[in-house]
Amino acid sequence: MMGQQARSESLFYYFRLEDQIPKDHLLRVIDEQIDLSFVRERVKDLYSATGRPSIDPEVLLRLLLVGYLYGITSERRLLEEVRMHLAYRWFTRLDFEQEVPDHSTFSKNRHGRFRQSGVFREVFEEIVRRCLQAGLVEGKNLAVDGTLVQANASPQSRVPRGKTKDMVQISLSVQEYFCELEEKNPVHDAKMVSTTDPDAVWAKKVGPAKMAYFDNYLIDTRSRVILGVEATPALFHQEVVAARKMVEQVQKLGLQPETLGADKAYGSGEFLAWLLDRGLQPHIPVIDRRHQTKGLFTRDQFRYEPVENAYYCPEGKALHYRGQRRESQGSVYRSTAAQCEGCPQKRRCTAGPYRRLFVHDQESVRQAVRALVGTPAYERSRRARYKIEALFAELKQRMRLGRVRLRRLWNVGEQFLLAATAQNLKRLVRFLAQRPCQLPTQVG
Prior knowledge:
Distance between the termini: 60 Å
Mean pLDDT: 82
Radius of gyration: 28 Å
CATH superfamily of the largest domain: Ribonuclease H-like superfamily/Ribonuclease H
Shape: elongated
Order of helices and strands: HHHHHHHEEHEEEEHEHEEEEEHHEHHHH
CATH class of the largest domain: Alpha Beta
């Protein structure tokens, strides 16, 4: 006999939310292993001693983590999902008798008190410290890279710098905004500025150009834990700026990394010298133009005499020091037209009247880094640094952060910090769940 389910409502139910969440559910494991209550202490000075009680800041943090763990990028949709999803309610401490916060209240707290306190950076660093305490992070071999993340601004919003004020009706608040923009805009040298998001940059890495930011990660290659994260405008030179900052932050945590793997974008002489000064071996391809001579003699074929500070060509003619090029950060050596005239190998040396060599100020550093290429350690770093690409894929595909929702650099930075925190949390709790009896279960 075919059954038929009738819709009926009982007057009383026995229902315990705790009983509905599986023991191996990600949110339950996070809740058991990580204590997030420290956020209250961090922001307590930003609340008044009088008035109506506000939303618990720990609840706000848990709501945000749910959004990033499950790729819910809209705050309005996140609160709707929490209202309907049992595990989300349980993790955020919102029982059925409690009202889910309104999205406007949620946004005001996030962009007000949370930003003022810098709590997102602290939460990220707290989870990194927990990874260190648990023994998950080795911290010897690191890798760094940046990925292009589309900004919440259209190409049509770009106007020439200096004409931004003409594009809007000027009011006092808008005037104040543009004054702040002139003083603090991190892309102050850009010729075109977006009126929607002036910190975003028109950039291209793969595919068509778009308004974008760089999300920069520094990772421990053994565990794939993100040790540093920085948001920057999508400018080539900003990748190295972010890398320096992240390495400094990691060393402040007490780690002493030995190697850093990266692609050629990080291979400038200045950055390589900076890494060596800090005790890191750069496993990075050197930015090198020695062989860009269109079939002519390369600089390697010229012999250097340090006593004379001169280079000698294959025919034994001297190229003497001719001065410093500060903008290029190097020295120029050249022969004379008389030396090169009638030389039997001139066709193989230069198309001009004389030969010129440019030598970078950090040439000795670059030579030392070139010598590392092909060593077993270099090859291990070269293979391991591609693990960072898997984290970027997770960021854009699973966490749906291929395009940022918020605007301005500080808001984008908060999104990147929370996303990296969620990625680290997943790795940490899986590691802790495998050895629960050997480790403390709470973060103090």
